[in-house]
Structure formats: structure tokens, C-alpha cells
Specification:
Shape: globular
Oligomer: single chain
Number of strands: 0
Radius of gyration: 20 Å
Order of helices and strands: HHHHHHH
Length: about 180
């Protein structure tokens, strides 16, 4: 909505640094859309056996290791030692579906929305189901994908043991995050 009505990218009087900071703040709320493929890629790899890259090489492993180390060091440095990649991932898991829904509403259904003031006296609903449903669905689909991929190896349908290993690691990591949410 801010981008549509009071666009800081075109608003007069702001420096390029301010425009970039405002844009970064606005695009942050679209983070769930960018994180959703990260959650789905290991599952697709486990179900289909098709990796997201053509070939796993030591160069790719080294490149990813450098990227991960730079990311972890960057968060630690920028936050003056108080930042945590773990808590960032946990927050993203907790909020990704709300961000996906909000982004889709802002892009496709903005003109059909109307502002409603909600009661501030306690919870609106007694059920937490709508808030944890996406994480529980991710857990169930991840478990099904793990069972599918490893049963193919155990039954001899697939002889490539390496392919499901990396995807299993990420699926288990996402299951842990979703469980903690």
C-alpha cells in the first residue's frame, strides 16, 4: 500500500540512500514469497529425485560455504554481536505465510480490501489453528517426502543415495523450525 500510494521511490525530497532504505523496508514484508521456494525445493527434490542444480561439485560446495560464512559473519557484524541467523530463520518460518498472503493481497486484491478496526480486548478467536496450519502442513508434506525418497532407496528403485541426503538435511531443518513455531 505504501508503494502504491506514497511511493518513496518517486517522492520528492528524499536522497537515494533514503529511497533505498524505504524500499528495503517495504520489500522486507514480501520475504515470505522469497522464502517459500526455499521451503519447497527440498520437498520437490525428495519427491522427484531431480536436484535444483545440474551437478553437485566441490566448487559449488565451496561457493555455498563461503556464502553461508559471509552471511553469518555479516549478521553478527551488522548487529554488533547480537544478531542470530537461527532466530532470523525461526522468525521467517513463523511469519512466511502471513507475508505471502499479505503480498498477494497487496498485489492482486488491494482494491477489494477495506480497513477494519479490530477489538483490542484479547484474542479475536479461540483457535490458533489458522496461525499454525501452514507450518503443520509443511511438516506433514516434509515427512511424506522423506519417507518417499528414502523408501525408493531402500526398495532399490533408486540407487543414488547422495541425492536425498542434502534435501533430507534441509527438510529436517525446516521441520525443526516449523515444530518450534
Amino acid at each position: 500500500s505504501v508503494l502504491a500510494y506514497d511511493n518513496p521511490l518517486t517522492m520528492p525530497g528524499l536522497s537515494w540512500g533514503q529511497r533505498l532504505c524505504y524500499f528495503g523496508t517495504m520489500i522486507n514484508w514480501c520475504g515470505g514469497v522469497f522464502k517459500l521456494p526455499s521451503y519447497l525445493t527440498p520437498l520437490l527434490m525428495l519427491f522427484t529425485g531431480v536436484p535444483p542444480v545440474r551437478q553437485f561439485t566441490w566448487f559449488l560446495a565451496g561457493l555455498m560455504s563461503v556464502y553461508m560464512l559471509c552471511s553469518i559473519y555479516g549478521v553478527t557484524y551488522i548487529s554488533n554481536g547480537y544478531g542470530s541467523v537461527w532466530y532470523s530463520e525461526l522468525f521467517t518460518m513463523a511469519s512466511f505465510w502471513t507475508q505471502v498472503r499479505g503480498t498477494m493481497r497487496a498485489i492482486f486484491w488491494r482494491k477489494f480490501q477495506k480497513f477494519i478496526v479490530t477489538s483490542k480486548r484479547g484474542r479475536q478467536s479461540k483457535s490458533i489453528w489458522p496461525f499454525v496450519r501452514p507450518q503443520l502442513i509443511l511438516i506433514v508434506i516434509s515427512i511424506l517426502a522423506l519417507v518417499w525418497a528414502w523408501s525408493r532407496v531402500v526398495m532399490g528403485i533408486s540407487d543414488d543415495v547422495f541425492k536425498p541426503v542434502l534435501a533430507s538435511f534441509w527438510a529436517l531443518f525446516h521441520i525443526l523450525l516449523a515444530y518450534l513455531v
